[in-house]
Structure formats: structure tokens, C-alpha cells
Structure prediction request, 205 residues.
Amino acid sequence: GCYGSGIIFMPKKANLKSEIKNLFEEVSGELNLSVLGWRKVPVDAQAIGDLSKSTMPEIIQIFISDKNFSNSTDFEKKLFVLRKIVENRLNANNISSDAQKNFYICSLSCRTLIYKGLFTPEQLELFYPDLCQEDLISGFSMVHARFSTNTLGTWKLAHPYRYVVHNGEINTVRGNRNWMKAREASLSKNHLTEYFPELFPICED
Prediction:
């Protein structure tokens, strides 16, 4: 078998957090995935600045298995589908602006685990004690720091880097989103046909 995991930013209100967890359970069931459990990620809020602390979401880790596991590539595709459907249903339901503001799936994968935060590189290992544990083993790791030049940073707007890491400014965000919207019609339906209607939009506004 194979197991997937992800780090998720959640709103702190218990009812909103519960609603999002239920949505994950519901969509996972539709995809023949099983949510094995949730873990509150240990953090040290004293390691970061006051602004970051005041806007910090609750940080949760999810664990998932594939009931009909065949290979990690297919499982990874399913986890992508799960992420997109949960994001899009949440946006479509408009459960609350607070939930949308504080909800963000940093990663959901059977291959990689991504930690993010609104802090400096020096604060990373202090904020996430996980990263200093001797039993945390990885083939390699990458750290990226972005220093915002024209916007106020937020936890949710941390760069995705779920698949690639780039070092450069994207100054035409609206243009890039529109290009992705235009390309949605030409995306291959291979392997994802049954999930296609709920995958869009690929990029949130």
C-alpha cells in the first residue's frame, strides 16, 4: 500500500474546522481514499513576529491511504484531484470569508511534505519542531525564502512549490491566471476523466 500526507492551514473556529474536515472525508470516500487521521502540527509561536502570530492559522496534518492502491503515480493524481475538489467545493459553498481566508492546502502528496509559514528562514526550525526530530528522514530537502516587495505577506499566499521551485517574480498574475483558464479546455482527460468537471478552476482567483 501507500500513504499520503499533507500540511493544511485551517481556520481556528471549531465549527469551520470541523466542516472542512468533513468535506475532506466526503471527497476522499468518493475517490476510494481513506482519511486515516489528523494531527495538530506542533509549533512554537514565540519564535515568530507579532504580525505573523496574530494572523497564524491552525496548522493540521492529514494522513490518507488509497483503498485500491496500484502505484504511487496514480495515487499522486488522486491526491491532486482530492485537493482541487476540496478547494473548489469550499469556494463554491462560500462557508465563510474567515474559512476561505485561513484555509490553504500547503501540500497533499505521497512523495513530498511541505511546511510553510510567514517568518524568516532563521525562524523555520524554531517554529516547526518537526524539522529537528532525528527520526525525520528525507532523501533531500529544499528551503525557499520569498521577500515580498509589493504586497503584505500572508500565511495563505505563501508560494505553492508543490511540484517545482522557481526563483523569480511573476508580475502578470492576472495574465497567467487567464492563460491557465484558456488552457483548461485543452487539458488531457487521460486518467482523470471521471473527475474532470470538479477540477476547475485549476487556479483560484
